[in-house]
Design a protein that fits this description.
The protein is mostly helical and about 35 residues long. Helices cover about 80% and strands about 0% of the residues. It has one domain. The longest helix has 21 residues.
Length: about 35
């Protein structure tokens, strides 16, 4: 159960990263947000 929840979180995170990429902020924008 816990692993499934973790996978879902990863899936959501990856989807949000892909969405940000599609918006044109490739690489630096979201990476800087993840690693201030």
């Amino acid at each position: 159960m816990c692993e499934a929840r973790g996978l879902r979180v990863l899936e959501l995170h990856r989807a949000s990263v892909m969405n940000i990429d599609l918006q044109g902020l490739q690489g630096e924008g979201w990476w800087a947000h993840l690693n201030p």
